[in-house]
Write a structure and sequence with these properties.
Helix content: 10-25%
Main location: cytoplasm
Distance between the termini: 40 Å
Number of helices: 14
GO biological process, one term: small GTPase-mediated signal transduction
Strand order of the largest sheet: 3-20-16-19-18-17-9-10
Protein name: Rab proteins geranylgeranyltransferase component A 2
Domain RAE1/2: 409-537
Biased composition (Acidic residues): 571-580
Number of strands: 23
Strand content: 15-25%
Length: 615
């Protein structure tokens, strides 16, 4: 691939259009080097890898505007391909761009604007087109959050008031979307970070958080009786809510208090352990609206498949995450979910990791006697030896995966002209669970992002819909889209449709969910080859973190997983090992791995000097 992150990546609008075209065509890649098999010895055999990515299917995109008007429109600020990646390259290119493309007015504090090196976090490049550097002005004020060494720090800037006039939202043309395409950072997978989840803990512990900024999810929504309404979550929200009667407020607070320490009161739920959570809620003297809020917007679990214990655990997790960084349990990374894998790439590169984009692999080389993998052969016909090999599931051929049965995820991404629930502030990050129309079908998770998340242009919203697949993504998700949004492109529409947000552009696709596959199901895979899955359908990231740590501990059982990095001033370089004549990837001895040089990969080893009082 020519971009980081695989199916975790984020794209600009033009980058996503290229990705769509690539997945709709699905052409096989030919071997660049036909005589690579000459590198295989007599006592060796090969395991060929897949030449085609089969993880994405049924890709359908739709434009609900005048697409012809954008034929000759080019993306503003498009940059030539540059051999740089990360904040350091971005800063250099930004200075050149300011002359040609004056930046929009910034809402950042004055000191932060004048001294970008002291600002919280970085302005990271997006994963759109590999090493292409992405420049995006922070022209939206927002509640941004930066992960510090041991805690998250919340920004002080206030959200901008709504500019939606009585006449309705500002009309956005498709040509504007194309022109402002670099304002978009569109995720292939839609997730949020639980404020007390495994990923937040890992980002803080490993100090990878230095490369990212976050924004609070500002509200939890519910879809009930054909209307979207806000769900009160915290104690303050409950007692300030106008949609709940006083009796309901007391009922809700009593039940949520019980959920926080339900393990201490087994007599209250043990008779319902074999029942569903929905059945248990009916026994708790809760009104139908409260049952709906708890089931779909707080626990966010299935009405038919979730047991009482699983529902109580999910509710407790939600409540424990409240209040750590805001009034909801969730955080969203600025510039999109695709920033997270790139942040780990940057930290790895600082300490010697080397990433090769546009560099495909032909096969694994296996020793016949030991049965262990010895090397790979790349598309240049170069043989690269190693002790361990980590392979993403999509690279394995059909012959290896004959016993594997995959689940699928249905995804849709929409660009809309207004929020599903307009309020005084248009800068909202919302999560909405739409319950299934028919029992047995999955609920649909909807995440709506505003422009201050740096994922879409001003006056638009980016909406992600996700659910486990029953059919194609369009068949699964279009009924929900029709409930929440106006798909009618004609001028004359009913009053009810006029109140709904208008969809400007949409894409549907199915993504393979390879999480939970037992390694033993892969046929003929050597013991030192480890398989990692693509994204799962869950809202959080716990599955990926657990999988990464499990694989790491299997390879290095005595090592700590993602330890805190040393301070740059404590690193001592061995001048003999990093001499330029010995390694083409080396830094100079004086170079310190500050974020400004984060993408320079050092080929030499590093020795860490620890102080006596260092933890």
């Amino acid at each position: 691939r020519n971009y980081y992150g695989g199916n975790w990546a984020s794209f600009s609008f033009s980058g996503l259009l290229s990705w769509i075209k690539e997945n709709q065509q699905k052409t096989d890649t030919s071997d660049d080097c036909e005589d690579w098999r000459k590198l295989i010895l007599e006592n060796e055999e090969v395991i060929s890898l897949s030449k085609k990515d089969k993880t994405i299917q049924h890709v359908e995109d739709f434009c609900f505007g005048d697409q012809d008007s954008a034929e000759d429109v080019e993306e503003a600020g498009a940059l030539p391909k540059l051999p740089i990646f990360g904040a350091s390259g971005a800063e250099r290119v930004a200075q050149e761009l300011e002359k040609e493309y004056p930046p929009m007015e910034s809402a950042l504090p004055e000191a932060e604007s004048q001294e970008p090196e002291k600002a919280t976090g970085t302005k990271p490049a997006s994963a759109m087109e590999g090493n292409d550097t992405e420049i995006t002005s922070k022209n939206e004020s927002c509640h941004s959050t930066a992960l510090g060494e041991s805690a998250l720090e919340l920004g002080k800037t206030e959200a901008a008031p709504s500019e939606i006039s009585a006449q309705g939202p500002k009309k956005i043309m498709y040509s504007q979307i194309v022109r402002e395409g670099r304002r978009f950072n569109i995720d292939l997978v839609s997730k949020l970070l639980y404020s007390r989840g495994l990923l937040i803990d890992l980002l803080i512990k490993s100090n990878v958080s230095r490369y990212a900024e976050f924004k609070n999810a500002t509200r939890i929504l519910a879809f009930r009786e054909g209307k979207v309404e806000q769900v009160p979550c915290s104690r303050a929200d409950v007692f300030n809510s106008r949609q709940l009667a006083m009796v309901e407020k007391r009922m809700l607070m009593k039940f949520l208090t019980f959920c926080l320490d339900y393990e201490q009161h087994p007599d209250e739920y043990q008779d319902y352990e074999n029942s569903t959570f929905a059945q248990f809620l009916r026994t708790r003297k809760l009104t139908p609206s409260l049952q709906h809020f708890i089931l779909h917007s707080i626990a966010m679990v299935s009405e038919t498949d979730c047991s009482t214990l699983e529902g109580l655990q999910a509710t407790k997790k939600f409540l424990q995450c409240l209040g750590r960084y805001g009034n909801t349990p969730f955080l969203f990374p600025l510039y999109g979910q695709g920033e997270i894998p790139q942040c780990f790439c940057r930290m790895c590169a600082v300490f010697g990791g080397i990433y090769c984009l546009r560099h495909s692999v032909q096969c694994l080389v296996v020793d016949k006697e030991s049965g262990r993998c010895k090397a790979i052969v790349d598309h240049f016909g170069q043989r690269i030896s190693a002790n361990y090999f980590i392979v993403e599931d999509s690279y394995l051929s059909d012959s290896i995966c004959t016993n594997v049965c995959y689940r699928q995820i249905s995804r849709a991404v929409l660009i809309t002209d207004q929020s599903v629930l307009n309020t005084d502030s248009e800068q909202q990050v919302s999560i909405l669970t739409v319950p299934p129309v028919d029992l047995g079908k999955p609920a649909v998770c909807v995440i709506e992002l505003c422009s201050s998340t740096m994922t879409c242009m001003k006056d638009t919203y980016l909406v992600h819909l996700t659910c486990p697949s029953a059919k194609t993504a369009r068949e699964d998700l279009e009924p929900v889209v029709q409930k929440l949004f106006n798909l009618n492109t004609e001028k004359e529409t009913e009053n009810e449709e006029l109140e709904k947000p208008r969809v400007l552009w949409a894409v549907y696709f199915n993504m393979r969910d390879s999480s939970g596959v037992d390694k033993n199901l892969y046929d003929g895979l050597p013991s030192n080859v480890y398989v990692c899955s693509g994204p799962d359908s869950a809202l959080g990231n716990d599955c990926a973190v657990k999988q990464a740590e499990t694989i790491f501990q299997e390879m290095f059982p005595t090592e700590e997983f993602c330890p805190p990095p040393p301070n740059p001033e404590d690193i001592i370089y061995d001048e003999d090992e990093i001499a330029p004549e010995e390694s083409g990837f080396s830094n100079s001895p004086e170079t310190k791995p500050e974020p400004s040089t984060e993408e320079s990969s050092s080929g030499g080893s590093t020795a860490v000097k620890k102080e006596d009082n260092e933890e």
